[in-house]
Amino acid sequence: MRTIGRRLRDGERPGRVALCSYCGVAWHRSKLVRDASGNLACPDDARGLDVVSLSEGNARMMRSQAPRDIGPTDGSSDIFISPPDPGFVNPNGPPPPTLTLVPGLWFSGQSNSGNQDAVPGTFNPRVSVTWTDSYTPLVSHGPSPQALHSNVAGSDHSWDWQCASDLASHYNSNIFVGKYWADGTSVDLWVPPGGPAWTQLLGPIRAFIARCRAAGVKNVEFVWCQGESNTPNNVAFLLPTYQSDTNSVFNGIKAIFDSEFISVHFTIIKTNINIVTGPNPTDPSAASLTFVRAAQDALALARSDTATIDFPDIVPASPGAVHYINGQTNVGGARLAAAIAARYVIA
Predict the structure, then answer these.
(1) 140 CB-near residues (< 8 Å, 6+ apart)
(2) Are strands 263-269 and 306-309 parallel, antiparallel or unpaired?
(3) Most CB atoms within 10 A, among 94, 234, 297, 344?
(4) The pTM is what?
């Protein structure tokens, strides 16, 4: 899709305009690049390979795959050792990560991560969700969604189930999800090695890793939804270490997955900007909410393995305005799935 704002508009001066050599569309000259063939390429076509780059790439590939065993010619085998070659180097940079299996999903955090709003979304039979919570940390539930509004497992709907269902459809594959849910926990309680939420997390996460290894899964998307419990007025003293504490949690999680040779990527669900703030000690503070959201963005910028996702148009339900209703978890889960799918292609 071409971005109209960067193309030549009717009535603009033609002196700074040129045509793309491949598609023939008029662009501002500053938006065109001259490729190895000497042609001008627009942003849409510059990602492809020109004839020169393609020929050089094919030559490199042929050289790196040259026959190594020639003969026999005189009663013995002549061994041809081709010199080391890096193979074809794409001038457009590396491609997205390629998967042979869809990524596993893990969810951790507090209420926003666990909420269901009792509105059925997409239930995909290829999804298996097992979860543990801080109330019964030694009990593994599932493979249905976590039920908060009903004692009947699977009667509600959650971010994780909708996200996984969309990914299962996108990749046309089975997908399994692990989850640890700790209601009302500030981030200091998650910090390794002694935080109570951290010690409770270890058992479920190791069980999840065992499932990954058995299935051959090498990539895990770790979705982190925590921050709401750091916004009340009476815990403002924890804010200065909010970012460093979260970073310590991520480092601890990454170390566990690294030890099992599983790649992990973190997605932070930013604390909802629309939660109700107030003056009481246990009320979220507007200043603290702003601080937490900024720290979440800063952490994602500081780490190459972390991204954030925000839902500023989703307004939690009243009263209290910290929980969701009317299918909001379905909307958020679907957007989260799209963000995850954009990071991977399947081999």
Answers:
(1) 130, 131, 132, 204, 207
(2) parallel
(3) 344
(4) 0.67
pLDDT at 171 over 50: yes
DSSP lists the bridge partners of residue 283 as none
**Do the bridges between strand 40-41 and strand 33-34 make them parallel or antiparallel, or are there none, so unpaired?**
antiparallel
Count Cβ atoms within 10 A of the Cβ of residue 185 and give its class: 0-12 exposed, 13-18 middle, 19 or more buried: buried
Which amino acid would we find at residue 251?
N
Q: Any bridge partners for residue 266, and if so which?
A: 222, 306
Which overall architecture, per CATH, does domain 101-346 show?
Answer: 3-Layer(aba) Sandwich (3.40)
Tokens, residue 221: 């998307």
| Token pair for 100 | 């042979």
Query: Is residue 1 classed exposed, middle or buried when 0-12, 13-18 and 19+ CB atoms within 10 A define those classes?
Result: exposed
Nearest 10 degrees: CA dihedral of 169, 170, 173, 178?
-90
**Residue whose C-alpha is closest to residue 241's, from 172, 295, 303:** 295
Min mean pLDDT across 23-27, 68-72, 259-263, 321-325 is at: 68-72
Q: Which carries the bigger pLDDT value, residue 301 or residue 94?
A: 301
The predicted-structure confidence for 60-116, as pLDDT tens digits, reads as follows 655 555 444 444 445 554 444 444 445 555 566 655 544 444 567 777 765 444 455
pLDDT of residue 212: 84
Are 175 and 127 in contact by the 8 Å Cβ rule? The answer is yes
Rounded Cα–Cα distance for residues 347 and 344 (Å): 10
Q: DSSP label at 83?
A: P
